[in-house]
Design brief:
- The chain is of the alpha+beta class.
- Among the domains are: 92 residues, Elongation Factor Tu (Ef-tu), domain 3 (Beta Barrel); 89 residues.
- Helices cover 28% and strands 32% of the residues.
- The protein has a 16-stranded antiparallel beta sheet that branches.
Length: 467
């Protein structure tokens, strides 16, 4: 039998069948993978914090300025040219030091003239006193002669009148001398006022007059310089009317400056001025307190950031505020809207449900039944609901709940009692121990964060907008 010329057909990649089979396998694998990924429930990643001991301060903040507590505006009491100025800004002076000299030519001349006038009047006084003695002798002689009928009555009366006149002239001259002495004291005082002395120990913080300037003190005393005692400074702060009711005299306060933001100066609130200042329709009240400045690092007109401590706790158990949920009534689950139902009807139903749940206590939920608040990847949640600690400064016992992570990884809602709170931390009085781990928020992947808002909405509240 002759051999057959027909060869068996070889499998070739050039034929379309293998390519179709390979593509079919790849598409199937991709479909299966996508299905598995879609069916797998993404488990949220919680952010946690450990309960630790620390200090908590609830603060009212305000801005203020530094001023010397004790200062004097040194002025001129007499007019004239400022002849010599012995100090400059920053000069340290002692009480009684000569600060400046005003041209005293006119005042010295006035003193000399008044002294000369006084000397003339004193000479006249001695002359009148001699005349008085003569008049007294003449009058006594006339009296004796009149007793013996050796003189006339007219001579006696004339001697008596002369004595009375001399006495009157002497009294007038004495009064003139007193007036002249008074004028002399004024002139000498004006002469002394031409030399200006330091009224207190301190530092020259400002100069408002220059050497050679003419000063006019007839209407208002011109200010030459200001001397201040920088050893004690006063901080004057302006507090809004919303916060002024939280302040009490004697409460603790501290402040920082722009140049030393890491350093704190502590004091107590001294006084609150009752009269406000209105700036741009904002009512502000002045609160003042003093602080020692022995190092002389605090200067006049420095800007300060002031922190009034309204409440505080030392060495207390602390948790982040974002871990707290106060036990206020929770919002009910949102019901699907019936077709044709108006928004007003829906709002009325929600109000009724909220009223019905007003006294319903919060209970612990098993792990997985409570849906946490989600935030984008890299962020941390600020709490489980809208009812978070706001740091209102009330040092009261307030009930709340936290979610605690157990050793086996499960979570439980635990009631606690909250004390002092601020915007960052809260004091735990009861319910937690040092070292407990509490949930503060939830991380969410970038893919999940782009999903529908209804899927990320926590139970019992509206979705929180990211900041």
């Amino acid at each position: 039998m002759p051999p057959s010329n027909a060869n068996p057909r070889r499998f070739s990649l050039r034929s379309p069948l293998p390519i179709v089979l390979i593509a079919f396998v790849l598409v199937g694998a991709v479909a299966v993978t996508a299905t598995l990924l879609m069916q797998r429930e993404e488990k949220p990643q919680f952010t946690t914090s450990v309960v630790e001991r620390g200090d908590i301060e609830n603060l009212v903040t305000a801005t203020g300025t530094l001023q010397p507590r004790d200062y004097v505006d040194v002025g001129a009491q007499v007019s004239g040219q400022l002849k010599v100025l012995h100090v400059d800004i920053g000069s340290e002076v002692k009480q009684g030091d000569l600060l400046a000299e005003i041209d005293a030519t006119v005042y010295a001349a006035n003193v000399d003239g008044t002294r000369a006038q006084l000397a003339s009047q004193q000479a006249q006084l001695r002359d009148r006193q001699s005349q008085l003695k003569l008049a007294e002798i003449t009058y006594r002689r006339q009296v004796n002669l009149h007793k013996e009928d050796a003189t006339t009555k007219e001579s006696l009366e004339s001697a008596e009148a002369s004595l009375t006149s001399v006495k009157a002239q002497l009294d007038v001259l004495k009064a003139q001398i007193q007036q002249t002495e008074s004028n002399l004291r004024v002139q000498e005082a004006n002469l002394n006022y031409a030399n200006i002395y330091a009224p207190m120990d301190g530092t020259v913080v400002s100069l408002t007059s220059r050497q050679g300037q003419t000063l006019n003190a007839n209407q208002q005393a011109p200010t030459i310089m200001t001397i201040a005692d920088l050893s004690t400074m006063t901080v004057q702060t302006q507090v809004s009317e919303a916060d002024i009711s939280k302040l009490k005299t004697g409460m603790a306060v501290y402040f920082t400056t722009l140049g030393s933001q890491s350093r704190r100066w502590y004091s107590t609130l001294d006084r609150i001025q009752p009269t406000p200042e209105v700036l741009n329709n904002v009512v502000l009240y002045n609160a003042l307190f003093d602080v020692p400045n022995s190092e002389r690092v605090l200067m006049k007109q420095m800007t300060t950031q002031v922190f009034f401590i309204t409440s505080q706790a030392r060495n207390a158990l602390t948790v982040p505020v974002s871990a707290l949920t106060f036990t206020a009534p929770a919002m009910p689950p949102r019901e699907p809207r019936v077709e044709g139902q108006t928004q007003a009807n829906g709002e009325a139903r929600n109000e009724n449900l909220e009223s019905a749940n007003a006294d319903r206590p919060r209970t612990s939920l098993p792990d997985g039944e409570r849906r946490p608040r989600m935030m984008p990847d890299g962020g941390e949640g600020r709490g489980w609901g809208q009812r978070r600690a706001q740091g209102n400064g009330e040092n009261t016992r307030r009930p709340a709940t936290v979610e605690v992570v157990k050793a086996n990884g499960s979570r439980e809602v635990r009631p606690v009692v909250v004390g002092v709170t601020n915007r960052i931390q809260a004091e735990i009085l009861e319910g937690l121990n040092e070292g407990d781990v509490v949930v503060t928020g939830v991380r969410q992947s970038a893919a999940a964060s782009s999903s529908s808002p209804s899927q990320n909405r926590p139970m019992g509240g509206m979705p929180r907008m990211g900041r």
